[in-house]
Amino acid sequence: MEKFVKLTGVAAPLPVVNIDTDMIIPKDYLKTIKRTGLGKGLFAEARYNEDGSENADFVLNKPAYRQAKILIAGDNFGCGSSREHAPWALADFGIRCVISTSFADIFYNNCFKNGILPIKVTPEQLEMLMDDAERGSNAIITVDLEKQEISGPDGGSISFELDSFKRHCLLNGLDDISLTMEKQGNIATYEARLAADRPWA
Fold first, then answer.
1. Cβ(86)–Cβ(80) under 8 Å?
2. Where are the beta strands (DSSP E) in 116-192?
């Protein structure tokens, strides 16, 4: 998993509450277990018209936000079903950080396992960040995970809280498999002892 230390990029405003995982990645895209290629389906029902053409009014189709790396979203982001395809689609599109006032628990935890940093802020802070994000290509925001700080285009900053273990995992690019592999020596020792104690097993 790619490490997350500091991210600087365009922030796209999505001032919609209760964005569920079906809106993030519609069920039609759930036939694959690959983590790549899902970016095209991100927010598909909002991004595309019925004939498959792009909806010019959707934020990620606007020229200023096509390369957005950060999403500023309304309350209760990621609610609905527990599909892990939702963070896969965000990551494949290029979104590495989502900022909101609250997240659905399963989506929130899935983000950390897929290299995405979800940040919880106050409603007042979200309003400030949303205002920054509405500046189009000038909506450059820096997220510093080491300092736990968000810096806006005018130089102002916001501090955020994060569980220390989740922070450690993102800073070091550790998913569940990587965390297990860190214990490889202990696992090998245990298996060797088990084989000696129970040769019949």
1. no
2. 117-120, 140-144, 149-151, 157-159
Helices H / strands E in the chain, number of each: 8, 7
Query: What superfamily in CATH does domain 6-174 come from?
Result: Aconitase, domain 4 (3.20.19.10)
DSSP character for 62? Answer: S
Distance between CA atoms of 26 and 44, rounded to whole angstroms? 7
Rounded to 10 degrees, the C-alpha dihedral 15/21/22/23 comes to 20
State yes or no: pLDDT of 93 exceeds 80.
Answer: yes
Say which amino acid occupies 167: R
Tokens of 72: 């500023």
- Within the chain, strands assigned E span 6-14, 70-73, 97-100, 117-120, 140-144, 149-151, 157-159
Q: Has residue 59 got a pLDDT over 70?
A: yes
